[in-house]
Amino acid sequence: MRTIIFFLVSVLSLTSFSQNYPSGKSILDKVDNNMSAKTRIITAKMEIADLRATRTMVSKSYSIGDKKGYTEYLAPAREKGTKMLKLENQLWIYSPSTDRTIQISGHMLRQSVMGSDMSYEDMMNDKPLLEQYKADVTGTETVDGRTCWVVTLTAIAADANYFTRKMWVDTERNVPLKADMFAKSGKLLKRITFTNVQKVEGRWFPMVMVYKDMLKEGPGTKMTIQEIKLDTTIPASYFNLGNLK
Amino acid sequence: MIKFLFKGLLRDKTRSLLPIIVVSLGVMMTVFLQAYMGGIFADSIETTANFSSGHVKVMTEAYKENQSQIPNDYAIMGINDVMKKLKTTYPAMTWIDRIQFGGLLDAPDSKGMTRSQGTVMGMGIHLLGNQDEITRMDLKSKLLMGHFPQKKGEVMITDELFKKMNLKLGDHVTLISNSMYGDMAMYNFVVSGTIHFGTSALDKGMIIADIEDVRVALNMENAAGEVLGFFNDSPYIDSKAKKLSTEFNAGNTKKSDQFSLAMLPMSGIGGMDFMIAYSENAQYIIIFIFVFAMSIVLWNAGLVGGLRRYGEFGLRMAIGESKHEIYRSLIGESLLVGLMGSIIGISIGLTFAAILQKHGLDIRDMMRNSNMMMPSIIRAQITTTTYFIGFIPGVLSTLIGSMLAGIGVYKRQTANLFKELEG
Description:
The complex is a heterodimer. Chain A has four helices and 13 strands. By secondary structure, chain A is α+β, with helices and mostly antiparallel strands. Chain A has a single domain (22-244), classed as outer membrane lipoprotein receptor (LolB), chain A, CATH 2.50.20.10. A 13-stranded antiparallel β-sheet of chain A has the order 6-5-4-3-2-1-13-12-11-10-9-8-7. In chain A, a hairpin with an 8-residue loop joins strand 8 (146-155) and strand 9 (164-170). The longest helix of chain A is centred in the first third of the chain and has 17 residues, at 2-18. The N and C termini of chain A lie far apart (80 Å). Residues 9-18 of chain A have low confidence and may be disordered. Helices cover 51% and strands 20% of the residues of chain B. The two termini of chain B are 32 Å apart. Chain B has helices spanning 2-11, 17-53, 61-65, 79-89, 132-136, 159-164, 200-203, 211-217, 238-252, 272-308, 310-318, 323-359, 364-367, 384-389, 391-405, 417-422; strands spanning 56-60, 76-77, 93-108, 114-125, 143-146, 154-158, 172-178, 184-195, 206-210, 223-224, 226-231, 261-265, 361-362, 377-378. In chain B, the strands form three sheets. In chain B, strands 3-4-9-6-8-7 form a six-stranded mixed beta barrel. In chain B, strands 2-10 form a two-stranded antiparallel sheet. Chain B contains 16 helices and 14 strands. Classes of the chains: A alpha+beta, B alpha+beta.
């Protein structure tokens, strides 16, 4: 009798304990609902700090979901007219100085985008996180004065870019404020911090992202969104290979 | 005594002819090989210096630490000022800036899409309006088809890659590489010619273009990866290069500043230290081999001579000459034989070496399809050492041979001498 009562009390305790944290899936679903849009048009400024100086680039990106993306670089003069087209899992880059369109594949995907801390592989990551990772909420922490769920993601797909990831998601606004990416050894590879969260068309959006390759020296790459439009019509011609030239 | 021994050798040619012939041959080969190997090593070192390392190389501290990765993000900026300063501070040297890089070479089809692609290593050197680098790197002997770049936008590629990518002279290709800032860089070239180095690592995929084209391609305005320095008045001398490097680094290198300049002598560049040490010590290895081999032969000849002169030694001991005196006379004879043989051998060896030094041996046709990068003309190099190096094996081997063979003298028992005489 005593044993049965002890068993029942333990089960009830465990249940009430685990109900303190939501599931990782529910948190990621909320983030998606907040930040995903059918279409996005973003004008952004990218400040790339390298060994000697900081270079600034301006780009305009058009995307339909996570499968189609077109980016054109508007400044500086050397990069102006460079275009990138992403269709499903393929990526092309057009260089106006050579008038050539080259497909980026294989080891070239690991190259950095415009010398930034972000690789083409990072850009190509289009699969929903829940398809590649198992998500668990492992605690709460404060980031920039905001209470965040700490969501730990462990790779379940063989082609996941990182073995584990950790995300700090604002509990109120459902916006990630920090994300760390780790190798299988546990070594921290990349860190993204999201700041200047603003309400855009009813959604909370971080307007400033700092992307840092933790294996390189320097402060990383800072991307500032200057203008963002959500769910506007984008002509299909933008996502045509012929449109690059 | 010397005159007496000398007369004895001349009168009894059976005791001197063979040893002199052996010594002459051995010394001749030693002298010729020393000059030949000295020439080959010196030429190989100079070829390597001209092609890639210079007698000394100047680069940034961070570039030096990661040389094998050709890190152009650590290139020397303000190269014009750096070159001016080097030429002013070290006027007895020639300074040349170059850019090395890696990437992909992409050949388009009629629609501009990729037709063929190859991984390449590249070199940006001064080519337009300047023949110095072509001469220094002996590129004329390596040119197979077409011509060197004569205007901007032209490139030479190795023949193996040219065939692999199914290219024709005049085809457009695009270099895809990394700029100095780490972003992707693309630049169009026209294939003007093909080259063959004779080293598979290079022939697999190498391109050579004018340095100004490479600067534009890789966004390296007024920058260069490395500056090579060459002594104007001498070939590579390791001690001289090390001294220069130490002096330069004392005034320029700061460990805390990864962009400060650093100088390396050729022996400080990976793999070259062994090659240079080997070339400096190779002559001693040759000497040792010949001393060893010739000593054994002359020891044997001495033993045979000892047998033949058994009676002579016995008579000399019987009339009162001591064993020490006989042994000393044997040593004296061998010294004379060694000297005579060495003089003859050195004369013949120097003659052959001088012919090879003057005329050289053109091996271009033999090396056309080879996989070894060697100088196209092999020459011997006669130095001060060549004139006297022959004496070492020549005299030493006869002395050792005689000393070993002459030991038998001490085994003779004077008590048995008269018995032998009676016999």
